[in-house]
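Before the break, one more example. Copy the sequence into your notebook; we will annotate it together after we see the structure.
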Amino acid sequence: MTETFTLHRGSEPLIVSLPHVGTRIAESLRDRFNARALAVEDADWHLDTLYAFARDLGASVLVPAYARYVVDLNRPAEDAPMYPGVNNTELVPTRFFSGEPLYREHQAPTPAEIAARRETYWRPYHDALADELRRVREAHGHVVLWDGHSIKSELPWLFPGRLPDLNLGTAGGASCAPQLRAALTRVLAGQTHFSHVVDGRFKGGHITRHYGRPGDGVHAVQLEMCWSTYMIEAPPYAVDTARAARLVPVLRALLESCLAWRPDA
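Here is what the structure looks like once it is written out:
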């Protein structure tokens, strides 16, 4: 455990990254945010609990402490938009997913502060992820990086309509081997509880696109899933145990498929 993240080192060629589960906001920042922001409504709620089984599978698991409102770990350091032509949130977000300002008037971060947050919060997470990818790949010859996310099913400022329940992203097939993408697609197609799409609205953020290098033995996949698959989409954002009980076996099947897959098979 460090101040900014927790890393569990596993024994298998699988790393689970959960970059948006953090809910802490530094004390020095709290007075600058709107009161609503302190409830961190855009967190990827409860994913560390839903993916708790990953440790039993032998996966490494990387979990941040701080909220995405402090810094977004799934954005590039240079803050280029992930999805050009539509609304995006930044490396250091200034808006809720609903579009309203996060900060009180005249309290948004300056360029110097953005750079400082990048070094304090973003850099340690990515250094740890890169080191763990290197360690696991050297031990096994390849590694699968699973980037886990969740989001409210309807957010008009970000996307039209309602998202499919499960959104698998592989950067259009560029971030992992086609055989792995096909194996995961078969898992999604074989279950009946949830709608799904592959490389739809969410094709993978910075982590998937940056680290996914199939030619170098690093295969990265993102799963963005709707909150409605496992929780109530309103405060206090409680888990719905019946929904979660349907979802977790699907998540387990997906991760087991990652472990069963081999690049030379």
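Strands lie at 5-8, 14-17, 60-64, 143-151, 166-169, 196-198, 218-226. Residues 5-260 form a domain with the Aminopeptidase fold (CATH 3.40.630.40). Try to locate both features in your own notes.
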